[in-house]
Amino acid sequence: MAGYRDLLRTPGVGRMIAAQLVARFPNGMMSLAILMHVEQQSGSYGAAGLVLAAASVGQAIAGPVTSRWMGAWGMRRVLTLTLSVCVAAVLCLALLPLSIAGYMAFAMLAGLSTPPVQSAVRTIYPKLVNAGQLTPLFSLDASLQEIIWIVAPVLITIVSTQVGTVQGLLLVAIILAGGGTWFILSPEVGRVRIPRSRRAFGRVVLKPPVLLATVIGFLLIGACSAVEVGVVATFGHGGLEAGLVLAVFSVGSLAGGLAFGHIPIGPWAMARRLLIVTVGLGLTMVTLNVFWIGGTLLLAGIGIAPALAVLFAITTASVKFSETAEAFGWAGTGQLIGAAAGSAVAGILIDAGGPTGAYLAAALFALAGLIVSVVFVRAFPDLRHRDPSPYPDTETLSIPTVRP
Question: Which of 205, 235, 277, 371 is the most buried (most CB within 10 A)?
């Protein structure tokens, strides 16, 4: 913990972490808010899952595009435009009487306009700290973001169940606007300039570590999304159990990230972390008792933040600085498509056979991620003895010569 305290004393680091956490806080609320609102309006978890999938697909499409725009137009300009549209779309979801198709359309618009805060902040981090502090910073970031998943589900569950689902979505819009504005106005956002990438759009995702981060992120977040839908279906809208159980899941992740944050990242780091996740999710199917589900998700959560820290580190260490935002955009796209797949599959299985199907889907997603990390272990960079910072952008200079 002393190392983390020293890290937070570095100028700008504490402010950036706090601002991006508030800006991204609605991410931990929006899925549950939409799920509860659409299920209440339609009476179907399958329909709610489709609306969540539309939002996630929108985010997936926009992620690498808006992240690359930041290199061309500047971070503040892109963040301001996307924030404005996203807030408007969430307000439409809350206030307009819509069919399922209408909910899907506005959910997709909200996804397409989600501000690329994650890509922005993880592009800024290497400019705030020295190379030796970067891996612990990624781990601290992955751990502290679990505060979002601890507090946000409880908060949105209380508001949506005790006040109303419309008010829940309105709260999402308010925090989205306030947090996004704080992040945009942070000095570091205006100070760091992302160079324009000279590579063709999409080429960066073909680098093996970036491709692995995208695929494994898809599977890991797919598992988490299926868990979220399964927990809501298990404990319903009548009490606080759903939000509290999801908070326990995130407490495990927070504890795991802080405990493992300074462990050097080798080729087998991802497999070890995903093994913990897979075992924990596999045990959830034994019984749907609230204490058993909470305990098994606590175990599974221990591997989540450390696995995300590995994804962040191998992505940063494999690309040029001008490519970092787009690379994180593609990694985010993988995670968001995973969220769409996980929520949709879980919703369909719940309608077909009850909440246990959602936990089965989550365990299978995690197992697939574990298999990928083992089969392609040679493609993971060994960061135990090398600088995890992005490569500097260089170009060949033409130097004229004079003949004697």
Answer: 277
Taken in order 280, 283, 285, 287, is the CA torsion positive or negative? Answer: negative
In 3D, which of 145, 117, 122, 380 has the Cα closest to residue 256?
Answer: 145
> CA 246, 179, 111 angle in degrees (round to 5)?
65
Q: How far apart are CA 169 and CA 118, in angstroms?
A: 22
Q: Residue 166 carries which DSSP code? A: H
Give the residue carrying structure tokens 């009490």. Answer: 239
Whether the Cβ atoms of residue 304 and residue 253 lie closer than 8 Å to each other: yes
Q: Which residue has the tokens 């539309």?
A: 54
Counts for the chain of helices (H) and strands (E), in that order: 18, 0
Using alpha carbons, select from 93, 113, 91 the residue that is nearest to residue 105. Answer: 93
Residue with the bigger pLDDT between 272 and 259: it is 272
Residue 395 clears pLDDT 50, i.e. is over it: no
The whole model's pTM is what? 0.75
Q: Are 355 and 288 a contacting pair, CB within 8 Å?
A: yes
Amino acid (1-letter code) at residue 352: A
Region 337-363 average pLDDT? 85
Phi–psi pair at 398, nearest 5 degrees: -90, 110
Q: What is the average pLDDT across 11-20?
A: 86
Q: C-alpha angle with apex 91: 87 to 93, nearest 5 degrees? A: 120
